[in-house]
Amino acid sequence: MRLTLMAVGMAAFFALPSAWAAGDSSPLRVCMAENNAPFSSKPWKAPNVSGFDVEIAKAIAAQLQRPLEIIPFESELEDDSNLSQEVNAMLSSGVCHIASGFPMLQQDLGPPGRDVARTAEYPGAKSYKQRPWIKLGTLIPSAPYHAVGMALAVKDPAFGSITLANLGDARIGALAGTVAGAATVLFNNRMWQARVKQLSRDDNALEMIDDGTVDTMLVSLSKLDLWRIDKPNSMVKSTGYVHPMRMNLGFVGLTTNKPLLRAVSDVIAKAILDGSMAKWASDTNVSWLPPVQPHVSQGPTMMQLLRTGS
After folding, report:
1. Separation between Cα atoms, residue 109 and residue 296, nearest integer Å
2. pLDDT tens-digit series, residues 55-97
3. What is the pLDDT of residue 12?
4. Are 155 and 209 in contact (CB under 8 A)?
5. Which of 30, 118, 200, 241, by CA, is between 20 and 30 Å from 69?
6. pTM given for the model
7. Within a domain: residue 196?
8. DSSP state of 44
9. Do 132 and 38 fall within a single domain?
10. Beta-carbon count within 10 A of 73 CB
11. Are residues 133 and 253 in the same domain?
12. 24 and 41 part of one domain
């Protein structure tokens, strides 16, 4: 019921007339990270980008009655640039109209933190130092289509039903310097701090579980999804417990493309309401979580981590 009410509200808010596509048959150009499986990826020699985001983009293009052109990009962060600025440069230079898989964080939306930036690497782009500096615009989000979450992963079936509040005898690990590691150590006012095995940030959490270094760890659901795709015979799986802290993903564009973002949001709201979003996620091996409120957040805070006790 809560999901249905949320989707109805989104549909009512965003189902406004959109003139963006009227009389225009040029392609809808969507930028997608080429190494963000299972949301979007373009393996070496693969002809096209594939993944969850692609299925959503297809529905958006169909609604707008426009052909779809996906622009894969690879981040090349240098100096004081960041991903938000690179995506902004892709949009502001006209390489694409919208970009997918964008974290709905206040600090990455709105007016840019700097005036100019270079684009990320994309097909046809010049070498990094030869690319022009692009004057950046103001970023605005679509409605979110997915919430990023963290799950407890285990290998031993004996621990198959544990939660972070009830670990039993499971040996739990945490990667230093990561959100998942902080969420583990700080959970419920540090209730497990004394028994957490601290691991290097460079360690692979799922490999640590698979080789028996630890029995369980909090891991990104998308990383667990990718693990299951790459290692279909592995016994490592989710216990079903998902940490309550979430962050939404959505599409992003410029304020000059408000009608387009409105149309994108309309497609997202309808797809959540009629079950298409969940089906696209299942078809692309994504463990879909419905978006949460607020749609745009400040990211995890210390108080959230300490108070989370469910």
Report:
1. 9
2. 999 999 999 999 999 999 997 655 555 889 999 999 999 999 9
3. 45
4. yes
5. 118
6. 0.89
7. yes
8. T
9. yes
10. 25
11. yes
12. yes
Which residue range(s) make up the domain with 261? 2-148+246-283
Q: Exposed (0-12), middle (13-18) or buried (19+): which is 124, by Cβ within 10 Å? A: exposed
**Cis-peptide into 47, omega within 30 deg:** no
Handedness of CA 224, 226, 230, 233 (dihedral sign): positive
What pLDDT, on a 0 to 100 scale, did the predictor assign at position 45? 73
Q: Read off the pLDDT band of 17 (50, 70, 90).
A: very low
Tell me how many domains the chain contains.
Answer: 2
Among residues 45, 44, 48, which one has the least CA distance to residue 30? 48
CA-to-CA distance for 53 and 61, rounded, in angstroms?
A: 12
Residues 124 and 268 both lie in one domain: yes
Last residue of a domain, one of 242, 270, 305: 242
pLDDT, the chain, mean: 90
What the block records as the tokens of 69 is 């052109």
Count Cβ atoms within 10 A of the Cβ of residue 17 and give its class: 0-12 exposed, 13-18 middle, 19 or more buried: exposed
Here the tokens at position 112 are 């840019």
Report the CATH number at residue 259: 3.40.190.10
